[in-house]
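Hi R.,

Quick one: here's the DJ-1/PfpI domain-containing protein sequence you asked about.
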Amino acid sequence: MQEIGFVVFPEFQVMGFTAITAFEVANLIAGDPFYEVTLLSEHGGPVRSSAGFNVETEAFGARSFDTLFIGAGHELHPASPKLTGFIRRAMTESQRIAAPCIGAFSLAEAGLLDGRRVSTHWQFAAELQARFPKLKVDQDRIYIVDGPIWTSAGMTATIDLALAMIEHDLGVEVAR
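And here's the predicted structure, written out as tokens:
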């Protein structure tokens, strides 16, 4: 069983969490539940999406996950000290950490992207590179895997990122 944690923030972009459906369908195709998804936030409880509905979350930091997704919204917000600590701990406890779109900024703030190639939304690529010169932004890639760090270009690219994970975990037939 792969436990996946999705960190959400107030006004999180719903499109970035379409990967959850890819993992759901992979479970159906595989015939057994391989993925278990938990939504996380700093304090736990309901978190409002950019679409106006709430999702119920568990407070992050209480347990570790095999895969950790750092969500994104419409705007950049500095990572809280608690989130930065959680991300750093996940680097040693998780098999992989994923950052769709501007989620890469949170990983960079935690110091996890130094010396790595990353992808992010083209509108934020120059800013990410300027703020964190030790990483290399490749804005022409839909997703990039650099060791345990998986990043993707934009919200819709999160689906491609999830399918790549499914192919890695369960094979190409399940990912199709």
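The longest strand covers residues 35-41.

Cheers,
M.
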